[in-house]
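To assess whether ligand presence alters the predicted conformation, the chain was also submitted together with farnesyl diphosphate. Input:
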Amino acid sequence: MEKKFEVLPEHIAIIMDGNGRWAKNRGLKRTEGHKVGAKVFEEICEYCAEIGVKYVTFYAFSTENWKRSKLEVTAIMNLFRGYLDRMQERVLENEQAGYRIRFLGAREGMPKDIVSRMDDVERRSADKTRININIAVNYGSRDEIVHGVRDIVREIQNGKISADDITEELISSHLYTAGQPDPDLIIRPSGEYRLSNYLMWQAAYSEIYIDDVLWPDYTPADLDRAIAEYAKRNRRFGGV
Ligand code: FPP
């Protein structure tokens, strides 16, 4: 695809919201909304790769989402399982796909068979460079910071570093997103004005774009609109 945008965010983070409402509006079960949402997720991954976005991060399941009904949690986990199985094959069979896939979030608490699939997909895709896809699963920003702080304290206790070595960079390097750039643009479909415990440290200077479209209806044209709006904004990073 020829170059489509003059200004393109290097890293886009998306909150896949509105699956439940989409299903309810159609008299369907919430799980049907997640099923369509999972398909849209794959389409948007491919579109981001085509237009040259280098990092895209999706919020698939939060540390708070365990509070949902067992039926809904199981359905989301099954969609995730199916996706991982397909990616395991795809990474092997289609070397051109070029997706480097990583998962952000706590592995503990996740079903063991899913964790081993996640590890496998991460390992097999580690040398791919077309696009970096992050999927936040069992993810919460506060939980991420708690894990990072614990690691840092352990390093201090072991005498590896001292308190004065704690810098913004050191903290960033102890988060799940270690080594990756902060998101330039965060997109939240479905009209909610909240970060919902998503990338709160990393979002310090992100542009935020709220869209009314529900995630299962989300299309590449909606992403184009968000990118066009991003291009118009003047990012000063606290300067003048
Ligand atoms: C938010 O919508 C969506 C979720 C909590 C689940 C998102 C999961 C998927 C799209 C499928 C699995 C993911 C992968 C990576 C294959 P909501 O249910 O909160 O919507 P509502 O606010 O309208 O109720």
